[in-house]
Amino acid sequence: MTLVHPTAYVSPGAKIGKSVEIGPFTIVHENVILGDRTKVGAYCELGLATQLGDGTPLIISEDSLIRSHSVFYESSSFGPGLTTGHRVTVREKTKAGSSFQIGTSSEIQGDCLIRDYVRFQSNVFVGKKTTIGNFVWILPYVVLTNDPTPPSNVLMGCTVEDYASIAAAAIVLPGVTVGYQSLVAAKACVTKDVPPYMVVAGLPARVVGKTSDIKLRDGSGDSAYPWTRHFKRGYPVSITEHWVSEEEKYL
Amino acid sequence: MTLVHPTAYVSPGAKIGKSVEIGPFTIVHENVILGDRTKVGAYCELGLATQLGDGTPLIISEDSLIRSHSVFYESSSFGPGLTTGHRVTVREKTKAGSSFQIGTSSEIQGDCLIRDYVRFQSNVFVGKKTTIGNFVWILPYVVLTNDPTPPSNVLMGCTVEDYASIAAAAIVLPGVTVGYQSLVAAKACVTKDVPPYMVVAGLPARVVGKTSDIKLRDGSGDSAYPWTRHFKRGYPVSITEHWVSEEEKYL
Amino acid sequence: MTLVHPTAYVSPGAKIGKSVEIGPFTIVHENVILGDRTKVGAYCELGLATQLGDGTPLIISEDSLIRSHSVFYESSSFGPGLTTGHRVTVREKTKAGSSFQIGTSSEIQGDCLIRDYVRFQSNVFVGKKTTIGNFVWILPYVVLTNDPTPPSNVLMGCTVEDYASIAAAAIVLPGVTVGYQSLVAAKACVTKDVPPYMVVAGLPARVVGKTSDIKLRDGSGDSAYPWTRHFKRGYPVSITEHWVSEEEKYL
User: Fold this and answer.
1) What is the mean pLDDT of residues B92-111?
2) Does C129 lie at the interface with B, CB-CB under 8 angstroms?
3) Which of A224, B232, C95, C237 has its CA at 20 to 30 Å from residue C34's CA atom?
4) How far A140 CA lies from chain B's nearest CA (Å)?
5) Alpha-carbon torsion A190, A193, A199, A200, what sign?
6) Residue B174 and residue C122: Cβ atoms within 8 Å?
7) pLDDT tens for residues B33-66?
8) Which residue of B has its CA nearest to A104?
9) C173 reaches B (C-beta below 8 A)
């Protein structure tokens, strides 16, 4: 049964799935589709319309959780299992895949493409025109920029490839690609492309080694990367079994 | 016609202009003046009073837009055309000019002076006693500090001069001046004054060149600075024509 | 007399002290204890329950002030005199002492231990399993991390010892200890332990001197550290007199 708190405003035009819950003082505008079993916390505003939208709705697919004080504009879409922290902001025309997690106070400025199983921790800032691959991890206070000569009309979004990790408080400069299975160290300032499987660190960031040389800090002596060998929390068995079978090809 | 949402609380003492709109669940306290045609989003609280105010009202001039979840204290004033993102915080005794833009989650701690046409993007933090000139750009996650030996009672605000740009995730240390038409690179830590027309970068930041040597990344081969040559979005024609005529003096 | 705004939701199961004030549109869930004379601003949600809690209540002790748009989960406790800025987030199982101040938009991810008279300014991020001593100062946009090889299941919280100061936009890497009365400079990236009484700066941070060699910037010629000699604002006389008597032992 759908539960809309009596203080919430839900437009009669919004399409609300089955067993949806909408919290106190939340506003759902007309041009919104909420998938089955999605929960929206308190003080959220979903589906704001501006001239930056293209008329398409905000689509939040099934089994999503949007925590309190979050703001989503219209004309973006999210696959099943979106989970957000508190006070998230998402502007128009972003398309995200399945099981996206967006940490507290993170902001996505719009016109972004984000694939499946991406994890943002808190206060991640993603400028317009960013592209993010599958299984990417972005830690707190990371900034992905897009204007190479501020202010200008040139917007060069960053690209983050599959399985890359960007550690806390790093920044990626406009147009840069962070490569497949690479690692950006904490506080790094990434001014040029990061090669696949490499670690970069510093200001400006330079290659400091291979990810495969980094050891887990659990005393096991095992390599920390690829992280899919040891970290499976929150992924479905179909995914983690696929990771295992891929590993076995190289044994 | 003024539109106050039925769930909003507007003090009878507040002075509300013509054609003002006040969104759901918003609170406007007594000591507030809202100019004509100003729009205030949902979940905002305007005009909070503390002992840090001086009894003067919060003044939001005409044609302003305050987005949702923002908080403004009393005793600050803003010229016409203020535009904010979501979740902005402004403390007491700041004075800002015309057409100020404050990005999402930015915070101004009070006792600041901000001139005309200043643009803050998201998560800009401005400590007490900061002075910012005209046409300044400050990009996401920039921090302007004021305490040289934390904690202390010595507050040395930063100064940012006209037409300066500070790129993403840079920090300016207490008492430092960022000069006229200068550029602070992304992630720079600015420990001493930045000369006019110069670019600084690094930790600590050093002069790395002249702004006039930086090319636009649009393939034109044109210089990116002064940015007033190529970037006019959002400024009135009277301003952009003035920029053109100033340029022509030097031809 | 307790003042609950008519638009607030307070669970009948919550234990509300004397002379408590609860602001508009605020939600207080069942498993919450609010001490006498505590004030809670607008749009706050207190006592959210998840499987990460242990069933114990959220305890906010007497004489506390929680500013608007803040979110606290259950199973954390705060000593008397907690003061927060706006939009603070605190997750489960954190234990904090007396007179804790948490700046606007700061986040504490849970499982932290925080002693007495700690001051966080705005946008401080504290990862799980962090330990913070007495009289610590943490300035805006500081990040305390915990995952040495993201993503992993190894969580190594940071430790910050008594009277340490961490200046703006610094980061402390997982498992690092910031020593007694030490100072981390603005924008530093602290990759290894900071010795007591020392100043570290840079990326990676290195020891650059003793705190006792840093002068106050007020023209007095006095040393800025230990800061307890000159900075007493907001501490009770019993504390500041103790500081004076400790100093006199060394004269």
Assistant:
1) 98
2) no
3) C237
4) 12
5) negative
6) no
7) 999 999 999 999 999 999 999 999 999 999 999 9
8) B105
9) no
Residue with the two structure tokens 């979740």: B87
Domain at A3-218: CATH code: 2.160.10.10
Collect all residues of chain A within an 8 Å Cβ-Cβ radius of residue C45: 41-43, 68
Cβ pair C152:A43 closer than 8 A: no
Closest residue by Cα to residue A79 from A94, A65, A58, A100: A100
pLDDT (tens digit, 9 = 90+) per residue, B232-243?
999 999 999 999
User: Which of C140, C218, C211 has the alpha carbon at shortest distance from C178?
Assistant: C211
In which residue ranges of chain A is pLDDT below 50? none
Query: For chain A, what is the largest distance between any 2 Cα atoms, rounded to a whole number of angstroms?
Result: 59
Start-to-end Cα distance in chain C? 50
CATH code reported for the domain at B3-216: 2.160.10.10
pLDDT digits (tens, 9 = 90+) for B169-223: 999 999 999 999 999 999 999 999 999 999 999 999 999 999 999 999 999 999 9
C105–A86 C-beta distance less than 8 A = no
pLDDT of residue A249: 79
Q: Strand B83-84 to strand B101-102: parallel, antiparallel, or no bridges (unpaired)?
A: parallel
Predicted TM-score (pTM) above 0.95:
yes
Chain B residues inside the 8 Å CB shell of C137: 150-151
Domain residue spans of chain B: 3-216, 217-251
User: Does C72 contact chain A (CB < 8 Å)?
Assistant: no
Pairing assessment for the beta strands B183-184 and B198-201 based on DSSP bridges: parallel
Q: Distance between CA atoms of C173 and C191, rounded to whole angstroms?
A: 5
CA distances from A2 to A17, A24, A42, A134 (A): 8, 14, 16, 32
Counting as contact any 3 or more CB pairs under 8 A, the partners of C are A, B
Three-class secondary structure of residue C246 per DSSP: helix
Q: Return d(Cα A219, Cα C59) in angstroms, integer.
A: 37
Chain A residues with CB under 8 Å of B85 CB are 89
Closest to C118 measured CA to CA, from C91, C105, C99 = C99
Report the alpha-carbon distance of residue C70 to residue A88 in Å, rounded. Answer: 14
- Pairing of the two strands A177-178 and C183-184: unpaired
Determine contact: C141 vs chain B, CB below 8 A. Answer: yes
From A69, A125, A151, residue closest to B122, measured CB to CB: A125
**Interface residue of B119, B213, B217 to substitute, partner A, most A CBs within 10 Å:** B217
> What is the value of ipTM here, to two decimals?
0.97
Q: How far is B31 from chain C (nearest CA, A)?
A: 18
- Give the H/E segment covering residue A237: helix A237-249
Nearest CB neighbour to C148, from listed A137, A141, A217: A217
C251: pLDDT strictly greater than 90 = no
Give dist(CA A175, CA A157) in Å, integer: 5
Q: What share of chain B is helix, strand, coil (3-state, %, to 5)?
A: 10, 30, 65
Q: Does B64 touch chain C (CB under 8 A)?
A: no
